[in-house]
Amino acid sequence: MLFDFEYHNPTKIYFGKTALSNLESELNGFGKNVLLMYGKNSVKKTGLYDEIVQILDKCGKKVVELAGINSNPRYSQVLQGCKLVRDNDVDLILAVGGGSVVDCAKAISVSAYAHGDPWQRYWIDYEDVDNKIVPVGSVLTMAGTASEMNGGSVITNEDQVIKNGRVYGPEVYPKFSILNPEYTFTVPQHQMVSGVFDIFSHLLEQYFSGDDDNVTDYLIEGVLKALISSAKVAVKNPLDYQARSNIMWCATLGLNTITGLSKEQDWEVHMIEHQLGAYTDCPHGLGLAVISVPYYKYICKYGLDKFVRFATNVWGICADGKDKNQIALEGIDALADFIKEMGIPTTLRELGATKEMLPLIAKSSVKGGGYKFMDENDILFVLEQCF
Amino acid sequence: MLFDFEYHNPTKIYFGKTALSNLESELNGFGKNVLLMYGKNSVKKTGLYDEIVQILDKCGKKVVELAGINSNPRYSQVLQGCKLVRDNDVDLILAVGGGSVVDCAKAISVSAYAHGDPWQRYWIDYEDVDNKIVPVGSVLTMAGTASEMNGGSVITNEDQVIKNGRVYGPEVYPKFSILNPEYTFTVPQHQMVSGVFDIFSHLLEQYFSGDDDNVTDYLIEGVLKALISSAKVAVKNPLDYQARSNIMWCATLGLNTITGLSKEQDWEVHMIEHQLGAYTDCPHGLGLAVISVPYYKYICKYGLDKFVRFATNVWGICADGKDKNQIALEGIDALADFIKEMGIPTTLRELGATKEMLPLIAKSSVKGGGYKFMDENDILFVLEQCF
Q1: Whether CATH 1.20.1260.10 fits A189-385
Q2: What ipTM, to 2 d.p.?
Q3: Which of A110, A306, B130, B186 sits 20 to 30 Å CA-CA off A203?
Q4: Three-state DSSP state, A61
């Protein structure tokens, strides 16, 4: 059942090999001063940086730069960006990179003119934004977070040792995002598969809740099947444009809110991985993959019909002559096989965890869940299953 | 493969039983003068008209009305609306009704301040809109056209005896649309099933083209499965909220452009039905249903793999031990069974067509197609199959 929802996603997407050709006309819609943000050196190595600077020049923009944004963007970088925005009266923040650069750009966008301490107000107290919001545009180079078409902004406050996520409203979404799948070709293989499973997990976290008949579940099944099909191609041939373009669009659809409408959602795998990452610094998607299999095996009896549906509709498991439990488990086995096919580790040990970490991870994880509320013991049990 | 596309859909959707409670805050975002548009008497009978007028009053709006919009909105009504907009300096056009009222509202929106003859410029010459666009909002009472979240505007010019559709850009999309599935409860059963097949056909027209692996095809399959599941419930119990809410959201997703991205698309069934409708005035969705089965049987050999996919992924046809042709035909048979289950006629005769009309319909239909270019003889053959 579709319960009451609001859907509003005003981001303009330019997708494909020639997507960057739209940057000029977009830039012309904003004022003269641009803050150009990017990560480490990869955009310079690939030549994308030069291309973009040329277009900015052609449009007569005055550009200031904020480089070196981390994969976990830090609050100190946000504050640096805020100062640049104010000092240069910036009209547009242009983020070039993956989700972390875009997350950081949104953080600067809401914080530059904040009244009071933005970290406390926006990432701790979750207050509404009541100040000028500087527009953000993005040129995406990695598929995964959907930050290019949502209001998410995960920031690490290194002084307070807190990593907090905040989902802002549509007024903070990027005004435009440029998605050329070819830009993802240079992402190393382990990061590509990590991204694939991050997308996969976003979809599963939204899918595994509720027992109603709901359009959104069918949409998620569609995106999952598209992702599986293309990930199997891309892992063998990362330069397959068709596969990489499908993965990139699946990433956007997977968390631009359309696959979450009227879903209670789960997100416990992300909560546990969050703490796993804090202890091991393992790639996010790989951590999600390792935790997912034992997690879903543990909770599947609490949402059995949905796991049966997952097995038959997503993985094409034949249900004939099997009981529900068996069908459900075959679906999770198919997920495990997919993870292996991606070349993703299957144990926490391989990701750098030690036996001693497990109780600490279990204790510090935010408790919650979809079909089952996961308490500390539940989480520890799951972690032990994949150690 | 996802070829280059642009996606931008800024319409804000309020969905659910309490959706109308958002009208007040939306109205407050626009100026004082409102043009309230609706169809015949149904919005007055259901009490929705009174509710909306009360909210408009509460917001202190000065309201002018344009009532009696036809199911095929006429250009003379557009011109009437344009005069009301200009004479009253209208700040917002509020369309209450089905797709035709929203289509008509969009037509007034672009035409009120047009330089020159809007019909010629916008519906015949397809020129870009270069004048002030009056914002539109909608309160939807029927599921089908997705006009609530797209730029479509089909208008009949009764003087020139031409019915023309135009798809405008996002600047013409409704700024907000209020979708309460309960408003669709009073739609008569034959209109409900006509709407269901209209949605179904939108999805099939987008689906049946291309032989690539493309996220959009998986999305369409998801929406089709959701629609089939809920239509089967709604046809037996039209007051089932879950089913009607799913149908309403499937309608929006079915033509808000997201299920058409990177698809070449077909639309020949719509082209033929357009002329069938001109001769018989039959309900659009019923005409589409009757034509679809022989049409797809006729073209399926030209896109055989896609029809095999349709059979297995949408209808769950078991492929074991069958050749492709057999699987494809079983899929189309499943579609035919679904149409029967909806209580939809299966012959043109039942829709009021005569044998003499068939060559005239074939001759006047716009020629085109997805997997096969349909010429006059092809179309006549299809029409004879379902006479």
Answers
A1: no
A2: 0.95
A3: A110
A4: coil
